[in-house]
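$ ./design --mode recover --in tokens.txt
reading tokens...
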């Protein structure tokens, strides 16, 4: 805020007040949003705020009896009084530029202005002094002994350079972390160091210290460094062109401190929000000045909040209930394992099915469990129970195929048991980390249910892609064997001996089936079905046709190999071109829920306004629908059938 703008504002206020006298009583109290909440704190005794109206001239000051306060839109009873100095610590740091450009009258004017500030500042304000030029010096720690600060002004000396940003950082650090803190920064030039302004702004903003900037003998453009410093810290920028104006500005800053009001209020019964918007209005000089701030109110919540069930937050769970839930989970798991120890019965298999299953990953795992006593181990009992429960459903075969396709050495029953364990463990972890919060528990439970399936799908997809990428080389090896005079099963065995997984492992199973009496074409077609490979289905179809009509199978293999190699090249090229879109879909789709989950664990109070109001739930629902539609749209956009 420039000096000219202050003069214009005061003049406008006078004119409006004069007009109000002759027009109507209500016009005299038109709202002016230039009030300022300088500090807010909450404790068990209630909420206290410092409210001021910068730039009021003369004896005009906010009227304590006219103060009105609303919290979250609800009117509350509040009391206001002039700050006496013992309720809230007030700290003000003078940061003065002592570079060579301040020599002469400017330097004397700066010291006189600082002295004027000390003369007018309330005695309870802790004042510190920082100077900056080629280096930064803490001349005086914050103290209520204003004479000591005034005496230190005489020891100031000028030097080269202007460490403006470093001086600001030192002043912010010197202001401390308690109470109302402000910095009055005076400079007549720009920073000449390598300190990054963005880093300085981030630190000053996080510290919560207001910085008022006085620019001496210079113009301050919009978005200039001085303007950005004041904007980031909710301060003002004022211009001073001569010594008298500079002294008047410093005197005005000190006068604003003498007119601050201490506003106190209690949160009403039934109020449950840990954060909320506090709005204050007060009358001064025939006008009503207002300001509002988003304030943390957790420490000032009524004590009955934690014991009255009707006032408890939707996602707040007491410790007894949390412990009871954990005990119930453990009892349920123990009961499940106990029932599993009673024995497991499996569906009968034909002799051929038993022989064939011995050469599959699932069959080998089943054999290990079958050959052991069902009650000899808790692990076998649990797996047996999961196996028995799954045998009643049709998805066992589909799950076994997915596990085979993904190369995971687990039976379907073992996978389901492991999946349940991961989900329950994730839910318990969320409950413990959040202190019994329902939302984090549900989020981690959902993650525990979803992530194993995502992992299984990833393993399956990766193995299938690897199988398809090896087909061209595999057919070339088979063609070489056929040209050397080998039969088709012998050529397949060559791939088993010289190839790499997953092709070698799948062809090994096909050979085992062929040796048990299954036609080699049928065994290879089963490989194609298991690996969901359309390309290999065409290969098997070509082999069947060649067997029926005759021809040179090795040349056929070479031709198909060349075709598959070109298809694989095209598939990879499409994958490269669509990589950016697919990555965008993953990031845009995963970042919002991941960040909400992080906030639910790290800062649950930050999400409380969103989760405790109907509007918040509607916004979450709308955002979820739009996210799902957006991810679906992106996936369809970047998906190219090859």
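writing sequence...
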């Amino acid at each position: 805020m420039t000096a000219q703008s202050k003069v214009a504002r005061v003049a406008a206020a006078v004119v409006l007040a004069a007009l109000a006298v002759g027009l109507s009583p209500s016009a005299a109290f038109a709202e002016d949003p230039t009030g300022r909440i300088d500090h807010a704190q909450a404790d068990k005794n209630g909420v206290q705020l410092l409210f001021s109206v910068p730039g009021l001239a003369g004896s005009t000051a906010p009227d304590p009896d006219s103060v009105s306060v609303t919290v979250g839109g609800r009117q509350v009873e509040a009391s206001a009084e002039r700050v006496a100095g013992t309720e809230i610590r007030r700290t003000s740091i003078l940061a003065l530029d002592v570079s060579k450009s301040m020599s002469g009258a400017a330097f004397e004017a700066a010291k006189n202005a600082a002295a004027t500030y000390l003369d007018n500042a309330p005695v309870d304000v802790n004042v510190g002094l920082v100077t900056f030029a080629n280096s930064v010096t803490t001349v005086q720690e914050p103290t209520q002994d204003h004479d000591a600060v005034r005496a230190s002004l005489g020891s100031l000396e000028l030097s080269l350079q202007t460490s403006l940003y470093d001086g600001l950082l030192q002043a912010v650090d010197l202001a401390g972390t308690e109470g109302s803190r402000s910095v009055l920064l005076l400079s007549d030039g720009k920073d000449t160091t390598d300190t990054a302004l963005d880093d300085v702004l981030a630190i000053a903003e996080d510290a919560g210290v207001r910085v008022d900037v006085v620019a001496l003998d210079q113009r301050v453009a919009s978005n200039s460094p001085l303007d950005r410093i004041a904007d980031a810290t909710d301060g003002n920028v004022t211009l001073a062109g001569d010594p008298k104006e500079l002294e008047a500005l410093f005197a005005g800053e000190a006068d604003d401190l003498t007119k601050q009001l201490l506003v106190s209020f209690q949160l009403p019964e039934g109020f449950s929000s840990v954060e909320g918007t506090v709005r204050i209005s007060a009358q001064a000089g025939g006008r009503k000045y207002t300001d509002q701030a988003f304030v943390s109110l957790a420490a000032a919540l009524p004590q009955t909040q934690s014991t009255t069930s009707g006032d408890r937050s939707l996602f707040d769970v007491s410790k007894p209930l949390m412990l009871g839930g954990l005990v119930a989970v453990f009892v349920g798991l123990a009961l499940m394992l106990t029932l599993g120890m009673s024995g497991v019965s499996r569906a009968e298999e034909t002799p051929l099915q038993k022989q064939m299953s011995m050469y599959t990953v699932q069959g080998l795992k089943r054999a290990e469990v079958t050959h052991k006593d069902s009650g000899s181990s808790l692990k076998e009992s649990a797996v047996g129970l999961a196996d028995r429960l799954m045998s009643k459903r049709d998805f066992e075969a589909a799950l076994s195929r997915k596990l085979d396709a993904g190369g995971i050495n687990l039976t379907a029953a073992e996978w389901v048991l492991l999946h349940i364990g991961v989900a329950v463990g994730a839910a318990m972890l969320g409950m413990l980390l959040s202190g019994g919060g329902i939302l984090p528990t549900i989020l981690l439970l959902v993650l525990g249910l979803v992530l194993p399936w995502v992992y299984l799908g990833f393993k399956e997809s990766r193995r299938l892609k690897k199988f398809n990428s090896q087909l061209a080389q595999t057919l070339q090896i088979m063609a070489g064997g056929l040209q050397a005079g080998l039969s088709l099963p012998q050529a397949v065995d060559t791939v088993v001996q010289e190839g790499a997984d997953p092709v070698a492992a799948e062809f090994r199973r096909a050979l085992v089936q062929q040796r048990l009496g299954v036609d080699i074409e049928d065994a290879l077609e089963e490989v194609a079905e298991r690996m969901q490979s359309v390309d290999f289905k065409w290969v098997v179809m070509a082999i069947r046709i060649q067997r029926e009509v005759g021809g040179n199978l090795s040349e056929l293999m070479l031709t198909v190999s060349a075709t598959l190699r070109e298809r694989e090249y095209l598939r990879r090229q499409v994958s490269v071109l669509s990589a950016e879109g697919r990555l965008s879909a993953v990031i845009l789709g995963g970042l919002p829920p991941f960040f909400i989950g992080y906030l639910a664990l790290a800062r649950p109070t930050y999400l409380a306004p969103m989760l405790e109001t109907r509007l918040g739930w509607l916004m979450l629902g709308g955002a979820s629908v739009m996210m799902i539609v957006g991810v679906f749209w992106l996936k369809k956009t970047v998906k190219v059938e090859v």
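exit 0
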